[in-house]
Amino acid sequence: MPRPFGSGRWAPVQGLGGVRGKMLRRNLEHRDAQTRQLQNAVTNVEKHFGELCQIFAAYVRKTARLRDKADLLVNEVNVYASTETPNLKQGLKNFADEFAKLQDYRQAEVERLEAKVVEPLKAYGTIVKLKRDDLKATLTARNREAKQLTQLERTRQRNPSDRHVIAETELQRATMDATRTTRQLEETIDNFEKQKIKDIKTIFSEFITIEMLFHGKALEVYTAAYQNIQKIDEEEDLEVFRNSLYPPDYSSRLDIVRANSKSPLQRSLSAKCVSGTGQGPTCRLRKDQQADDDEEEDEDLDVTEEEN
After folding, report:
1. Mean of the pLDDT values across residues 32-38?
2. Which of 24, 50, 57, 178 has the most Cβ atoms closer than 10 angstroms to its Cβ?
3. Which residues of 264-291 are buried (b: 16+ CB within 10 A; e: fewer)?
């Protein structure tokens, strides 16, 4: 005679199966939520780390182009300096040397940014791919467990004893697999989040350190370049420029021309002035001229009186 449902040998097993089935269903639902969380985290990192990588790479390329333009500036300053007066020439060449040194530091900045910032961000492409593979494996395990649970529920509804025993065995195996995959997924999520935060701190710390090192060196170099420009002696270079407008024997030739252009009397007076007696004859000449003028005025007065 058939035993009533819920009593006898299979009753505890059926009860145990129901509890395990509910536990497995809850585990599946919990793991679904974890899987979605990991998917969102991976998608978020993939999007924003990709953007950061592109922008930092563009930043490095711009810095490299600035270095190239600065090299052109150094060459032009040197070419121009070679055409200038001594002080200006030396000051410009010293400036060009300092500015060239700065471009060496800028080159080091480019290389460090590439190695310490761009490459670690680029590596997250591989990390994201691996995490997606982990998600795929987790989803496969979850689907297999969900399928086993569905089969178990159908078997319990039919309630044949042999199939029920087989289903209970499969359920125990599925429960163990669910526990294992859930633990692995939790570890994966935790490790991924921890590594992401650590990498962000490292990458941005390296970026700031590299920039600080460069700008510290740049301040030193710019200070030296500024001092070299300020040391240029304007007056001395201006005197050199003025002297370059005339030939070396210009002064002696100018004196000869001026001497030849004077009248004999001027040459005689000039000679006396040079000898130290120039002042006396000049005064006497002026007195003689005044006396002649006075005599002419007296004659004019006498003529006027006679006529009256």
Report:
1. 78
2. 178
3. eeeeebeeeeeeeeeeeeeeeeeeeeee
Q: Which two tokens stand for residue 192?
A: 């991924």
* Higher per-residue pLDDT: 150 or 294: 150
Quick one: how far is CA 63 from the chain centroid? 5
The radius of gyration of the chain's CA atoms, rounded to the nearest angstrom, is: 52
Pick the more confident residue, 7 or 55. Answer: 55
According to the per-residue pLDDT averaged within each range, which of 50-59, 243-252, 261-270 is highest?
Answer: 50-59
| Residue found by looking up tokens 């059926």 in the block | 14
Record the pTM. 0.65
CA distance linking residue 295 with residue 308, whole number of Å: 21
DSSP label of 261: T
| Whether 95 contacts 231, CB under 8 Å | no
Question: In sequence order, what DSSP letters do the residues of 250-263 get, joined into one string?
Answer: HHHHHHHHHHHTS-
